[in-house]
Amino acid sequence: MNKYAQSALRAVKLLRAGTHSPESAWQQAVAEVFPDSTSSQTKSCPRGAFLGLCRAGLVEGLPHNPTDPPDNGLNAAYARTAVNLLRAEPQWASKKADDIWKSVMARIGSDPNKRANAQMDIVLTLWTAGLIRH
Asked: CA-to-CA distance for 93 and 88, rounded, in angstroms?
């Protein structure tokens, strides 16, 4: 499990313990996991994937307000597409993150050469931990 996946698990734990928002939980989690790397703490791709899942109400055990505006960023869309793929074909959970990424890129119609940046690691980790609403 990579450090961004660890950060996502930690952020969910913080949210369940009463941290005020997904954003602040993510910031605290990456600060703990990457204490000496500001650039890793501020990386937008994993952050966007995690926040997109939260805002879409896909993280199990977290409150969801349907009136909250959805996250329309690309990384949120990649994460939501991966969840839809896993829901339709749960056997994808045993695949590598790169394989899921390629399938997500094909489904979205994005550049097949675009490189992933931990988005699928976050989705897969939360899915395998039972933290994505099925």
From this structure: 11
